[in-house]
Amino acid sequence: MKIDRRACLSALGAVAGAMALRPAVAADQFKMGLLVPGSVAEEGWNRIAYNALKHVEAELGAKVSYVELQQNPASFEKAFRDYAAQGYNVVLGHGFEFQDSALTVAENYPDTWFLISSSKVHKGKVIGLNTDSSQPFYLMGVIAGKMGKGAGFIGGLEIPPIKEALDGFANGVKATKADMPVRSVYLGNFQDVTAAKEAAVNMISRGADFVIPDADAAGIGVIQAVREAGPDVCTFGVFTDITSTAPDNILGTYLADYAQGVERIVAGIKNGSPLPASNVVFGLKDADVMKFTYNDKAKRAVPEDVRQYVDAVKAKIISGEIHTLGG
């Protein structure tokens, strides 16, 4: 339920030094492929990429296709090559783990654009679409610091976008309640629901009353553990709204919507418009991509004074006064 990691493009309009593209591609020839590290049936990280792909299909008339993969770099590279060899104009690898394979394949297929989610890469026709999850996770940390006694974070793989989310969460807690303990665990994968649940149960037994997942499908194990612990233990939905799975415990949701942003980038490629000269970064300033909502029906619903405090923190993050990763 990430997202991972995990899409307005307000940044695109102000980009200087843009790269020149080839002439527009005819609509009936334009093709986009998608690689996801899991199933698009999951509500969460993989689903937001699938929704973006379908949005491109509907709005741009593109021919689209997707491949569901396990965490296997060899399969990533093969899938990229297959799409590029078939003349696909754009391939989106949905996750930082696809970056190296895209860079390798791009050397042999100069006519294909490779977009990589949760990445800061920008090299030739490989462009990263990085969602700064440290920002919404910082807000979760602030709420935990205001309302909780102990906090826990359970991530999938120890890769930069997951670590950034953890750092943002921990920094938000510490900025609000300096002596509040924050424990963290990396599962080493994004599929092991049982391991995620066991890690969450352990954290709860050690006093954590806020436990947050950033582990794609495995994250449902965290939700299960929190729900079974009772309404005094809280969590947040990550990337999509799963409030119905634990309505008493989920205090809010970090929603990530890539669809509009991905469409604008792909439309630029299709039409020969300028694209940014660096990777694209989405944050709280991009209100149509990154949203933070509350669940008013939770047993420990976030009170109004805390919400106002969070709004003030959010404004400082957007203005640059608060750096969610420290420094």
How would you describe this structure in keywords?
three-stranded parallel β-sheet; 327 residues; Rossmann fold; alpha/beta; seven-stranded mixed β-sheet; 20% strand; 9 helices
- N-to-C SSE string, H for helix and E for strand: EHEHEHEEEHEHEHEHEEHEEH
Query: How many structural domains?
Result: 2
Estimated structural class:
alpha/beta
Q: DSSP helix count?
A: 9
Mean pLDDT: 89
Which helices and strands appear, and what pairs or packs with what?
Blueprint (H helix, E strand, L loop, with lengths): L30 E6 L8 H16 L2 E6 L4 H13 L4 E4 L5 H8 L6 E5 L4 E2 L2 E6 L2 H14 L3 E5 L4 H17 L5 E5 L6 H13 L4 E5 L4 H11 L5 E5 L10 E7 L2 H13 L8 E3 L7 E5 L9 H16 L8
Parallel strand pairs: 1-2, 1-3, 3-4, 4-6, 6-12, 7-8, 7-9, 10-11
Antiparallel strand pairs: 5-6, 11-13
Helix pairs in contact: 1-8, 2-3, 4-5, 4-9, 6-7
Question: What does the model show?
Answer:
The chain is α/β, with parallel strands linked by helices and 327 residues long. It folds into two domains: 10-131 and 257-282, Response regulator (Rossmann fold), CATH 3.40.50.2300; 134-255 and 288-319, Response regulator (Rossmann fold, 3-Layer(aba) Sandwich). It is built from nine helices and 13 strands. Strands 1, 2, 3, 4, 5, 6 and 12 form a seven-stranded mixed β-sheet that branches. Helix 5 links the parallel strand 7 (151-155) and strand 8. Helix 4 (134-147) packs parallel to helix 5 (160-176) and helix 4 runs antiparallel to helix 9. The radius of gyration is 20 Å and the shape is globular. The model is unreliable at 1-27 (pLDDT under 50).
